[in-house]
Description:
Blueprint: E1 2-8, E2 19-23, E3 26-29, E4 35-38, E5 48-52, E6 59-62, E7 69-72, E8 91-96, E9 107-108, E10 114-120, E11 128-136, E12 158-169, E13 172-176, E14 182-187, E15 193-197, E16 210-219, E17 232-237, E18 240-245, E19 252-255, E20 263-267, E21 275-277, H1 286-289, E22 294-295, E23 298-304
Parallel strand pairs: 1-7
Antiparallel strand pairs: 1-4, 2-3, 2-5, 5-6, 8-23, 9-19, 10-16, 10-20, 11-15, 11-23, 12-13, 12-14, 12-16, 17-18, 19-22, 20-21
Amino acid sequence: MAQITIQDSQSKTPISYATVSFGDGQGLFADDEGQFIFNFKIYPDIDTLYISALGYQDKTVATAGLKKIIFLDEEVSELDEVILIAENRKFKEETLKPYLDDDYYSCWLPTIESEIAVFFKNSDNKLKKISTIHFPITLESKDWEKRKRKNAEKQPFSTLFKVKFYKNNNGVPGNVLTYENIVFRATEKDGDVQNLNVSPYNMTIPKSGFFVSIQVLGYTDKAGKLLPNKKYKELKGPDGIVKIPTNFRPLLPFTDEVSLHNTYIKRVFINGNNWVQFKRGNIESGLLKKDLINYGIGFTYKVYKDE
């Protein structure tokens, strides 16, 4: 077993929450200090690691002779120039509310290899700045028989999520809008909506709209530190051991109240890391059979008046 740290090749500082893919549908994430544990006993057949992180060039590393530090080189920035907005400029704030649902059977069960992105169009050419993203979650009762009672004690969890923003590339998530690591921790004590303040990142809404995504990094300790999480359950089948992705709490409610297919799914460690529109014919899901076609994210934004 080896503890590895991922660092910037120039500054020698840790790179938080980098993705470590093993290929064949396996992988994990580094923590906030850029560290991850690779267990040779659990993964005896893995000979290569594929490392990626926002703002850095991808790197392939052989597990034979694996060093304690892996260095990544910065990627040449392709981000748009930041639009500076005067603090005293007049604006009005508008909100697209999230779609909530406490029905267990209307929810996506998050797994670490899945990233969910939702598209939001830009209705006009007015300057708009994203201020808050509203992520709906479903809280589960400890006692299944009391699951429909609002005051029922909830099942505890402490889960870390990563959030990304993407440009609209002809209807599919394209380049990222910021290289900042944006994460938040969700617990059962926070209610059924996680309100993430993204004002400090100064993101204006592109004319062609944008995507916002959410991805499970894993469970945390009481202080919010990412824990080593088992990504798969190993079950014995007729053809040998089958690895089933571990589901993480909280559940993410999907909705049928949005007619357009605005939701896309990416399996980070498999299928070439490509986005797929969440619709029948593309993905097998019980949610689609009930016409629950979108994850109901909401967001608040500032609309600036012309000067």
